[in-house]
Amino acid sequence: MAAAGRVRSEDQFLCSICLDVFTDPVTIPCGHNFCKSCISEHWRVNVPYQCPMCKEFYIKPQLKINTFISEMVAQFRHEAQHEPNIYSSDQQAAKPGEVPCDVCSEPKLKALKSCLVCLTSYCQTHLELHLTVPALKRHQLIPPVENLEDRMCMKHEKPLELFCKTDHTCICLLCPVVDHKNHEFVPLKNQYEEQKTELKKTEAEIQQMIQERRLKVQEIQRSVELSKNAADRKTAEGVEVFTALMDSVQRSLDQFIEEIQKKQRTTEKQAEVFIKELEQEICELKKRSTEVKQLSGSEDHLHFVQRFTCVKAAPSMKTWTKVSIRAPSYEGTVVRAVSELEDKLTKDMKKVVAEAELKRVQQYEVDLTLDPDTAHPTLILSDDGKQVHDGGVEKNLPDKPQRFSFCPCILAKQSFSSGRFYFEVQVKGKTGWILAVVRESINRKGEIQLSPRYGTWTICLTKGRDYKAFADPEVLLSVKAGLQKVGLFVDYEEGLVSFYDVDSSVLIYSFTGCCFRDKLLPFFCPCPSNGGLNSAPLIITLVTH
Q1: Which residues, 6 or more positions from 254, have their beta carbon under 8 angstroms from its beta carbon?
Q2: 395 within 8 A of 408, measured Cβ to Cβ
Q3: How far apart are CA 219 and CA 57, in angstroms?
Q4: pLDDT digit string (tens) for 443-490?
Q5: What are the chain's domains?
Q6: pTM summary value
Q7: CA distance 26 to 62
Q8: Helices 301-312 and 188-296, interaxial angle, to 10°?
């Protein structure tokens, strides 16, 4: 309570302009008191001779020191020096970065509000007058800010309360009279609300841009992931190809070494035979030499003469002068082996690459079923919609717009307008067939032009032996006899249609640079049964990976 009473007594001695204890207090005719220097400066800068409190005008009064108030202020100052700090205990000194009270002596307390009229920041104690004095209540208070001078018009020393839309600048109430005459201006608060709304839109746009970029990051990350997956697949394919090639090289090397070693073993075996014969003859000659030595040392004339003819006769031996071991010729062996390896690698490489390529396209397998609503009346379908053959007799079927009525053909139910797809068809036992992908707009009621120009990408078998691709012009295909299963792959965006011999993993033919503008549908024509010679069905089969 003592602190509260102290604050109330202090209010009586504060100048309403500087909000500090009076210095040379003067009283103007309306009875309000101010520091002499404060009211003089106020009249010089603002409206001359108007009371800042009650706004009453006067003829220039003569300012005299109010001795009574001056004495009271002197007494107040004396008492304040011998009493405890008058500030309430819950107030805090301003910290670095916080706005200090402009009225406090050291230490300065933390400001609670700044006044745009007084251009001063106040702590709780010095803000009291602005909350109690009616004239000061009209002052505009804002959260504490520094550099309040920046909120004043430099020319008229008035608060910046308007916004000039013409010059896009903040102005005071006097600026429209001179410098901004005929300009469009609005209260600063209105401009604040307008710009705040725009700022919300800007924030929404920024958030949208952030979201778009986050989605782009996800898209790029997804692209990197897809690229990595593709790289891993290609690496695996490459490892498979090169492993097969290295195995082929190793087998060729083993065969080469075996060939050399075989020749060497033949030479060694021949040498062993000769050596064995020579050792046998040496053994016999040694035996004869022993006999000769014994007979030469004999003193028995009769025995000597009787054995002489037998011992002297040369033993029957093989003539070895023309016998020799010739080293096998290795001339050209390495070159021949490398040449054979090169040919083998070429074949193996083509085969391995073809197998890898077929495996690559097989991953785009789709499950197809035949569409009975498009089937020509002579065609017979299996219950599962996977097989079709020509029955030779037209059935009485509704002539739907999508049904082929001229050619014995049928389409799949599934259509494609993007991406990649692959399927396989068994053609085993047939002497004629047509496989293709066609535009959805293909002619259903008349003769079909089998050409990319008319929206068909086709290969066929005729007469049981002639394989053809209906390009521009027609191409006769070189296909291994006994083709049993055909794979068909389409890359819509790439404009590619490829046909494969599945069993041998060989590419039969590719249409490239195709321009697809329509939906594509798989197309099947089992061709007439030809008296039973071509009665086998076309069968859509599962892909065996």
Answers
A1: none
A2: no
A3: 73
A4: 999 889 999 999 999 999 998 889 999 998 999 999 987 899 999 999
A5: 1-86 (3.30.40.10), 225-362 (no CATH), 372-541 (2.60.120.920)
A6: 0.50
A7: 10
A8: 150
